[in-house]
Specification:
alpha/beta; eight-stranded mixed β-sheet; 7% strand
């Protein structure tokens, strides 16, 4: 009996297309789905004539695999992953490898890796990005977990992954524990910001300038040949050029599956200013209040002014504003990974991560090559904005960026992610922020103490601001 090289559980869109990708690269794949009818439909349909073996039970799947067994799980994050792992355990032997390819929370991946390693098994939590087309033709793959598993899965993963123009696979080992899923979470957070920023430029062009879909299609087509060359700009161009009644009928309320929210929550816990990404998440929440917004539009008045400037100039400014804001969202994402890497001992390779995102994934774009160059030149770079290329890019974009945000405010067109990105840029480049007043306020009402510019860091002081508060102060700490 022919033994399969790898098994896959979960034949939804991503799972099905990953199986076809593996088979197309010469691997034999065993497949199982809880609804076994899907197994038969797939093997007899899209998988017909390919090196794909159907299984009607977890036990049968495990029996059909060569040793060490490699089993990839493509099911919904959370309890379903745990349930599948539990169902596999009776049929696995020491050294077998379980791979979670869904969008799991990195802490769950850490927990699962520890639990399976205690049983002598290996666990890999891997981010997979690229959507349906990427899964079939070459996704970005970000594996982490039990490093001993990497030699056994490297060939499969790097074979099916997207490739750069130089033939480099957009897949490499990320790190131990939950590193792979953490990097995928940050990828998705940047994706949230990128999409929101594109939507804000669309909104200003449509509502503020009155551009038609055909005109905006032309704008995005031109942008996709320059510094904004990227997958998301490309698909926006295609959407605006699509001729179908459905496009105009899409409801203006956006869903989300949690990865962007996780990124924001973790950034708060880590004390990292992930402002552009957080605003993109909040923008989705606001879009979900659709009935409230419709009612509020009847009550709340905006500025009621029309744009009277140079329309072509503003479109050019929008290109620069979107470019600079995207740079900020990447800078914030890499800053969060840097903090997590230090906290968890992952020793992340940021240049390698930029390479993994260069092709195949949703946020693939031209300047990811420049990000890779930046971290290869300086692996300890504190912030992407400090690299010469990106410092020059934001300097060039700055005037147009500011005009766009000002125009949005004047016209009453919301631009939360782009304006937040500009505020972060201004805050990061500001040598002295007004937090001195904030610390004085905290010390005034709560005796929380403050540090002084003329004394060493780590010394704390308290002022009796009212004259009757006494000398007792609170212990200084950051939560």
């Amino acid at each position: 009996m022919t033994k399969a090289n790898i098994g896959l559980i979960g034949l939804a869109v991503m799972g099905e297309n990953l199986v076809l990708n593996m088979a197309n690269h010469g691997f034999t794949v065993a497949v199982y789905n809880r609804t076994t009818r899907r197994v038969d439909e797939f093997v007899g349909g899209r998988g017909a004539g390919k090196t794909i073996l159907g299984a009607h039970s977890v036990e049968a799947l495990c029996r059909s695999l060569e040793r060490p067994r490699r089993i990839m799980i493509m099911v919904r994050a959370g309890a379903p992953v745990d349930a599948v792992i539990e169902s596999l355990l009776p049929y696995l032997d020491a050294g077998d490898i379980v791979i979670d390819g869904g969008n799991s929370h990195y802490a769950d991946t850490e927990r699962r890796a520890r639990a399976l390693e205690q049983r002598g098994l290996l666990f890999v939590g891997t981010g997979v990005s690229g959507g349906e087309d990427g899964a079939l033709n070459g996704p970005s793959i970000m594996p982490g977990g039990s490093e001993a598993a990497w030699p056994s899965i490297r060939d499969i993963f790097q074979s099916i992954a997207a490739k750069t123009e130089q033939g480099e696979p957009c897949c490499d080992w990320v790190g131990t524990g939950g590193a792979g899923h953490f990097v995928k979470m940050v990828h998705n957070g940047i994706e949230y910001a990128d999409m929101q920023m594109i939507c804000e430029t669309y909104h200003l062009m449509k509502q503020g300038l009155g551009l038609s879909n055909d005109e905006m299609h032309d704008v995005f087509s031109r942008w996709n040949t320059g510094v904004l060359d990227s997958y998301l700009v490309q698909i926006t161009r295609d959407i605006l050029g699509y001729r179908d009644e459905a496009g105009a009928a899409i409801l203006d309320t956006a869903g989300q599956k949690g990865t962007g929210k996780w990124a924001g929550t973790i950034a708060l816990d880590a004390g990292q200013p992930l402002t552009a990404i957080a605003e993109a998440v909040f923008a989705r929440f606001l879009s979900a209040l659709q009935s409230e917004r419709v009612a509020a539009a009847e009550v709340l008045d905006g500025p009621g002014t029309a744009f009277e400037g140079d329309r072509d100039q503003l479109v050019d400014d929008l290109e620069q504003a979107l470019y600079a804001s995207k740079i900020v969202s990447y800078a914030q994402g890499f800053q969060l990974m840097r903090a997590a890497s230090g906290e968890n001992g992952w020793d992340l390779d940021y240049g390698a991560i930029a390479l993994m995102w260069r092709e195949g994934c949703i946020i693939r774009s031209r300047f990811l090559g420049n990000i890779r160059d930046a971290y290869e030149a300086n692996p300890t770079l504190d912030n992407l904005l400090l690299d010469g290329f990106f410092a020059a890019a934001t300097a060039k974009a700055q005037a147009g960026w500011r005009r766009v945000v000002a125009t949005g405010v004047q016209l009453g067109v919301p631009m939360p992610a782009i304006s937040s990105a500009l505020s972060y840029f201004d805050g990061y480049r500001c040598a002295r922020l007004p937090a001195n007043l904030l610390q004085a306020q905290r010390d005034y009402f709560g005796a929380h103490t403050y540090e002084r510019i003329d004394r060493p860091r780590g010394e704390f002081f308290h002022t009796n601001w009212t004259g009757h508060g006494g000398a007792t102060s609170s212990t200084a700490y950051d939560a």
